[in-house]
Amino acid sequence: MAKCLSSICAVSHVPKGNFLQGVIAMPARRALEKEKIDSLEKLSHYSEKEILQLHGFGKNALQKLKLYMMENDIYFKNNES
């Protein structure tokens, strides 16, 4: 039964694109995909606080994402929203 469940999970939860592949872990990528965030430009419309509220996103993923965004001169919006 566990083998069947793991294969169902792998098939049904694989992100369609390769946005941020190799930058952040799969749970964080799935969280962004669920919110239809598939580019750094779309990501810049969110605050760090909003991204951290997504299920599957933690401080480690956020730090990696911030570094990647800074390398590409893209930043989160202000956290006051």
Overview of the structural elements:
With 81 residues, the protein is mainly α. The protein has one domain: 5' to 3' exonuclease, C-terminal subdomain (DNA polymerase, domain 1). The chain is built from 5 helices and no strands. It is globular, with a radius of gyration of 14 Å. The N and C termini lie far apart (45 Å). Residues 4-13 have low confidence and may be disordered.
Radius of gyration: 14 Å
CATH topology: DNA polymerase, domain 1
CATH architecture name: Orthogonal Bundle
Please count the beta strands (DSSP E, at least 2 residues each): 0
| Terminus-to-terminus distance | 45 Å
Largest sheet: none
Order of helices and strands: HHHHH
Number of domains: 1
Helix content: 40-55%
Percentage of residues in DSSP E strands = under 5%
In short:
It comes from Chryseobacterium taeanense. This protein has helices at 2-12, 26-34, 40-43, 48-52, 59-71.
List keywords for this structure.
RNA polymerase, alpha chain C terminal domain, about 0% strand, about 80 residues, globular, DNA polymerase, domain 1
Architecture blueprint of SSEs:
Elements: H1 2-12, H2 26-34, H3 40-43, H4 48-52, H5 59-71
